[in-house]
Amino acid sequence: MTKVHTDITQFRGSHYDYGYAQGIAIKNSPVLKNRQDSWRLRKPRFQSNEQEAKRVFMQFAPGIWDEMLGLRDALEMPMNDVLRDFGHYRVNAKPSGCSILTGADFMIRNYDYQPQTYDGRYSFFQPTDQGNAIIGPTSRVTGRMDGMNEHGLSMGYNFMQRRKPGNGFVCHMIGRIILETCATVDDAIQLLKEIPHRGSFSYVVLDRSETTYVIEASPRSVEVRQSNTCTNHFELLQHENRHHLDDSRRRLDIIQQENKASMNANDAFRLLNDTDKGVFSDLYKSWAGTIHTTAYFPKELKTWFALGGNQEPVVFDFASWLKGTDIAAEPIHGELDTHLGIANMQT
Hints:
CATH topology: Penicillin V Acylase, Chain A
Structural class: alpha+beta
Distance between the termini: 16 Å
């Protein structure tokens, strides 16, 4: 078992200042070193084009472009390196797992991936220039793995396949842009039909309307369905699926068998977070081990977070934070059944 922790970050201000503050925070940290070391192990199979990236960011999320300018200035890095490390545009996403279950007023999600890619940062951000306030775990600093915004719109995404990538954003940034710019599930659906996709993912969205949508997206097509369960295969874009889907279908069958109209958020959380229920994964070496379990409550504007399995979640009152009350910023601790650490740890 490896002991890991997630740091809490809180920021109110402009996107540029947010980017600058994040740059200062990670400048001499293991997060930046481990991120840059990963490129020494595997050279990027893409090229960053600053003008092209700026054009698409200015179209879909100009505030996030300002955030990366702040990162550039704080880290004193060339913009192409900032885009490579934090831009999430035209980069390649590795295979992963992930499971999602929703009810009328909650979303529960397991984030399954490779620990060394994991930031270990849980962010509260309230912009003063443009865009929505957001809560959730970060991915490569600027992206989000899942999250909720001030309107209660909650989002998670699940990997499908990585064949035939397009010129577009990867899931971490698309998830961030959904939360940054959308207020409702209908807004999210429209965005996902317009934004360019690098890879193939399903995006699960829930708002205060109590209806969950699964938006199946690839560089070639986007389809929408209503469902409150999702793992790692398309139901509508089946021609886009990988060939090996046994584990994805196994987890989905368990969730659907246990999912009942009477299931509450605590029962759903235990189904995904308890290591003996069959949904929590220990496939860390295969880029598909469960690192965190999160819960989002659109009506209450509360969130739960647990690092590792068999955990009682830490509860955050996002509604109170939006009114100006900071939360105690103690790190969240947990254990993973692997020798691999996460990116905020010294290697």
